Amino acid sequence: EEPLAAAPVDFLQELPSCQSARRRRGGTQERRPALLGTAGSRGAAARALQQERAELTARPAREHAMSIAQKRVLRDSQQAETERLSRWKKWRRTSSKSLKKALSEVKGLSSYLVLWRHDIHSIEGKFGTGIQSYFSFLRFLVLLNFVIFILMFSFVTLPIIISKYGIFNSTIAYISPKNIEDNCTIYEPSGNKGLVYFHTYLKDLFSGTGFLEVTSLFYGYYSVDAMWISIMRYKLPLAYLLATFAYLALSFLWIMKRSGEGFMQNLVHDADPFQSYCNKVFAGWDFCITDPNTAQLKHRSLQYELQMDLQEEKLKQKIAKRTMKEKLRIYSLRIFINIIVIAILSGCFYSIYRVTVFSQENSNDIDNANSHANLLVQYLPSMVITLANFIGPLIFSFLIQFEDYTPAFEIKLTLMRCVFVRLASIGVLLFSLWSQISDCGNDKCKPCGYNYKLYPCWESDVGQEMYKLMIFDFLVILAVPLFVDFPRKFLVTHCPCKLIKEFGQQEFQISDNVLEIIYGQTICWIGTFFSPLLPAIAAIKYFIIFYVKKIVLIHTCKPAARPVRASGSTFFFLVVLLIGLVLAFIPLGVSIARIPSSKACGPFRNFNTSWEVIPDTILEFPTVVQQILFGMASEAFAVPFFMIACIIMFYFIALARAHKQVVEQLREQLALEGHDKMFLIRKITEAQKDN
């Protein structure tokens, strides 16, 4: 094929893109048209074109955008070409087609095995992708907790079960505590003995005490040093600690992998406001919606988002026109409101601290051990935390109205405050427990290194607190639909009172529901070290919550007419979940590295802290391996490693800046191509008029 004739050079130099390039260079040099090129570039382009055509002809006929008759002709030509091939090439092509077909069928069948596939698609069709993303996020947490449970059960619980029953000729090796007083090794769980009432079992089920305290649910059950499975020695302390690191690393990597795609989309979305506006106008409609009422809500949602964009632009103009007196007034008001917020948070945290101390001191009281009020005393911290999580966001939503922020920033700041009050309350609870565990007044810690009289096995006590938080949070989630959502729906539907009618049907608030389950997941991450089977409870909890929320959504709720824009993206959910995971690292790190381990229970009773099992294991390695590992932990290795990491980081920062410049140039080129098209259309129109 002959190449197309090149356009005249003078005409190409009249294009807006060429003139723009000349202006950027100062207008002193003539630009050589790119279409003319060199012989080498034309040859490379021809080879690339031939390779592309060969790849197109090798594709199956069904992948081409042709009519049926053209596809039949193409198929016949491909079959005729196949007959001329050698046997080896025929076999390779046939096996490649068969493999692709088998993989396609397996992929199609595996889609039917996805959990809640039909339910989530149904929710997406009736309520749009915003609410669908919440249920997909809930499914992700179910799978994550199930994998964590499999990990902890396989490496921690299962070896003990195998050894206790002598499977695979296995035995348990107990090592007597070294350099520890006998008083510190006594641990007598308050298990039920003899005939007990049924309500006692219920109390133990909700509080984690009694018969549950001596089961594999809590840390105190794993008081084993090593196991012999056939001829292999299995160190449970090392496996317990490595399994903890493994589930934290697995959670972190899984969240980062899922949030990578959403981060790229948000980066592109926030880079150009005009592009965001075009996306709303030309690509904002959700074609998965089939319900007319939901379609109307989607119309209102898009209208609201456009109005909010305009409102933000007006606020930006208003901010730019503020006088110094107005700025001083607004900043003073914001400082005052933030002082109020800090005071509210301090009051909540102090209440949690005092209630936790009161609960720990009175729940272990011997005189109160058999009373029904003991269960209420044990659940006081969970109740106060739930109350703070309920009242705090309401106050924050009211105060944010007076701070005069843009709507988007209002939403982000309110959500961040809600996240802080939810997740920090767990940290305050743990701090309260640690202050009691490490309370060394009157020489309480002298023999054992911690408050042994109040907490003979403090890890199990922390696990019980996490267990109670998990159970109470689940009960609250079940109680709200039963006592709030369904009665409200009944009154709105059947009560003729105008006030109730104006109150209206409730909306499904995605952000509140997401924060609710992230709070529970943070509890699970922290509690898994102290209660290895807690992920199984969390997986069952989220499995039930899925159906509860689905029933509430379909029968009592309507999607929000003004949804939070960030809540429609799974990336927002994963960012908040990542914050919860990072906050979970802190109490776990303190518990493992700083607080003395219990000397009466658990796999780390022969170590001062849980972390000491790592250097103790390294000392069993050969001398060369020890020197390598200790050298990697020394300053001589850390300083060069830090410098190399900084160099790599600066390289990627520079690379990102270069990519950003290329993207800006490509955007400018796209805009110039639009101007070129308009110029050519105008020239063609003028030429037609002259003719």
TrEMBL record:
Annotated region Disordered: the residues are: 1-42
For this UniProt entry, what is the primary localization, expressed as one broad class? membrane
Question: What keywords appear on the UniProt entry?
Answer: Membrane, Transmembrane, Transmembrane helix
Where, subcellularly, is it found? Membrane
Name one cellular component (GO) term: plasma membrane
Which superkingdom heads the taxonomic lineage of this protein's source?
Answer: Eukaryota
Question: Which positions, given as ranges, span the membrane?
Answer: 140-162, 238-256, 331-353, 379-402, 414-434, 571-590, 637-656
Enumerate the InterPro entries for this protein.
TMC (IPR038900), TMC_dom (IPR012496)
| GO molecular function (one) | mechanosensitive monoatomic ion channel activity
Q: Output the lineage of the source organism.
A: Eukaryota, Metazoa, Chordata, Craniata, Vertebrata
The residue ranges of the TMC domain are 457-567
* Record's protein name: Transmembrane channel-like protein
Pfam families per record: TMC (PF07810)
Q: How does it sit in the membrane?
A: Multi-pass membrane protein
Keyword Transferase set for record: no
Q: Which family does it belong to?
A: Belongs to the TMC family.
Q: Which gene encodes it?
A: Tmc7
